[in-house]
């Protein structure tokens, strides 16, 4: 066992862990806002739920990247873990960071945007999808970029 | 009255004196009546516009006060109005118009009517209270005048009744009695004369 | 901490940062805001034919209980119940209880004014106080009877002292109000900056300015030239108000040209000189505060929208009371609209 593998593990962990933090904070904010609105207007449940689940995607991206890393290091294969040099380990670690960090910040901010959208939807339900969802989706775009970069780096950039 | 009259010359003289007295009283009373009604008309003429002004002022005050009350929190209103600083006392004295005792009101006002701070109260309340303060003067004057008018009106009524009684009952009655006594006395005279003539005839005939 | 009278904003002072603890509360308040009466409804009520018609217009909205109200007494009861509900909701929603205490202090000081007035004029202290302060209404009589002022929070103890001293200096009950108003203004500005609440500090300083403007114009109308009625701590310094007492009505707008209250003064003064009435001034002052409170809409979470909701709802309740009272008593629609705004 060498440090390369340890770094790869850390990369897999960070991807899920940072993106997960982002998603859960975002979900928490959006969820609290949504319950606030629902306590007065239960009929808006559908729209509220749509807006609340938007920040959950960052966590999923993180998880997917972690899984790719695990595949890369042959965690699920039969013949034991792949031998990874320190340099490769660092590469994997670095490649995991974009999704983690982008997920962390975009998750929080998407949550806030969703909260704003939820409050607007409480006053103008007809704008809920048009503005609330679309603006939150714009934040999502940068989480996707992070995911894309991590994905390309791991699959194309790193060969073991 | 006519039944129990002593148809004597003495009575006639007395009645003549009474009728003279009654007509003098009648003349005096009707002069008093005219004077009171003149005064009354004078006061009534002042009351009309005064009353209108007071009513207008009070209406305005109420309107503003209502507005102030409606736009302030009820608690602030209680706090502002609870302890007044305005001191108000009235002294009543009596004057005499045509020997009628009429009240005259002297007022003594001290302190500012705005009895609260400026923090939690509406400016409209200031305006309402100041308008009320102004309305007070006219209001007191109005009260004084109306009471005078009322008292004079009562006096006028009694005087008029007295005049009427003198004019239509007492004087005609006495005059009728005088006429009656006069005719009674005349009859007695004629009676006497015819009796005397009869006696003269009797004396001449024998 | 002294606050310099510097105006570093254009129209409305800053409202501070978001606070995500308040995500739920803010969202709830936002939904509640949708049930508030629109300006249109109030104007329609003012234009309604009579009291019943105005009541009918109101019935469809948040004030369904109002439908059965026949007299002004009923209206008042419904409104008081509504106001109590709003205040209780506010207390429930606020996480930072210090801010609640600070906003409640208004009622404590109002109660205190009344209690001191009664005590110094040897009247019974009584029980009819506002129950929304930090000190329960029922305690006032007890505390004053025992003269045990240590039961009051410290700020009220100082206020009692100031109020009583001011009374005995001139034997004039109005001095109590002036002293307590001044103390309250000082207290709320100090406390808000101590709590670091940018929003409350802005709100209080704006309120102080507007009170000063009203005081200035009221003194002007009464021809009183006393100079120490103004409250310190606002954005506009007291000297300017004192100066305002000396100049004519027509020069006031110029004097306040560089302040955010230029419109308030201009509109208010025009109405005062033409109608001898403060209706429009008071409306403009309220609108200024409402405009400031509306800027909290840019925050997605924080105590600001909740405080704003409380104040706006209280204002709405006062407006409903005003319109219904005027309708019941057959006041001119024009007057109602002057007070309410078009």
Q: What's a concise summary of this model?
A:
Chain A is mainly alpha-helical.
Description:
The complex is a heterotrimer of chains A (160), B (206) and C (342). Helix content of chain A is 81%, strand content 0%. Chain A has 160 residues and is mainly α. The radius of gyration of chain A is 19 Å and the shape is elongated. The two termini of chain A are 16 Å apart. By secondary structure, chain B is mainly alpha-helical. A two-stranded antiparallel ribbon of chain B has the order 1-2. Chain C is mostly helical and 342 residues long. Chain C has one domain (20-340). Chain C contains 15 helices and no strands. Chain C has helices at 23-33, 39-47, 51-59, 72-93, 97-120, 139-146, 154-170, 173-195, 198-222, 238-246, 249-255, 262-275, 279-294, 303-328, 333-340. The two termini of chain C are 41 Å apart. The interface between B and C is large, with 31 and 49 residues.
| Beta strands of chain C, count | 0
The average pLDDT of chain B is 85
Given the C-alpha coordinates, what overall shape of chain B results?
rod-shaped
Helix content of chain C: 55-70%
Distance between the termini of chain B: 47 Å
Largest interface, with Cβ-Cβ < 8 Å? B-C, 31 and 49 residues
The oligomeric status of these chains comes to: heterotrimer
Shape of chain C: globular
Termini distance of chain C?
Answer: 41 Å
* Backbone structural class of chain C: mainly alpha
Helix amount of chain B = over 70%
How much strand content do the residues of chain B show?
5-15%
Radius of gyration over C-alpha positions of chain B, nearest whole angstrom: 35 Å
Give me the number of helical elements of chain B. 3
Number of helices of chain C: 15
Q: Tell how many strands the DSSP assignment of chain B holds.
A: 2
Main sheet of chain C? none
The topology string of helices and strands of chain C comes to HHHHHHHHHHHHHHH
